[in-house]
Amino acid sequence: MELKVQSLAERPEMLGGVLEMADTWPEFATQDPVGNALYGRIPLELPEYVQFAEDERGEVVAHAYSVPFALAAEGRGKLPARGWDEVLVWAFADLRDGTRPDTVSAISVVIAPHAQGTGLSARMLSAMRDNAWALGFREVVAPVRPNAKHLEPHTPIEEYARRVRPDGLPHDPWLRVHARAGATIDSIAPASMTVAGSLEQWRGWTGLPFDTAGDVEVPGALAPVRCEPERDCAVYVEPNVWMRHSL
Question: Mean pLDDT across the stretch 210-235?
């Protein structure tokens, strides 16, 4: 597959193609209120931080979103425990306040369903790193969502993240892509994304009954969803792994 990777700032007419590209996110994962408020602003307000891959037919088959933020700002200094949610809040607060950013955070790398398994994830991560360098940054961080963790929802994320193969690379495929690109694990983001909803909402998102108190295993979830029928509520708190890329 011959692909051309560019930024949305270079090709603003491709905004529709980027926004309309199919993905494979579980429905519940699109219900995070922070993400719903801020993720869609990235291609509109920060197009230079959106890379996309276009095939020979002009179809968008992958995209990568990132955001600039000031890690060294007062009250910060270390990568946040609230991971993906917090770094989005920081980035758009900095944009609003005119705070000079010093770091770029990966936000997503999404591959169209028909193009998965072709090595595009690594290529888009590389494009994101190259873009950050070209914009004058010397570090990219990433609240990584380990893509095989959903197979072990009850395994503590600390244990899972540190698991390695005999060759020393991470056990998880997506952590391994980052490691091969030169990243190292910084810390765990135990509450990187939080999704709360009524039991009826969770039934709609997952097709599961959500009628028993306790932990519910949901396909695609990295940890169990906590169900509390007496409160008509269920909550998912997703752990991620912070990785740092020196450029």
Answer: 98
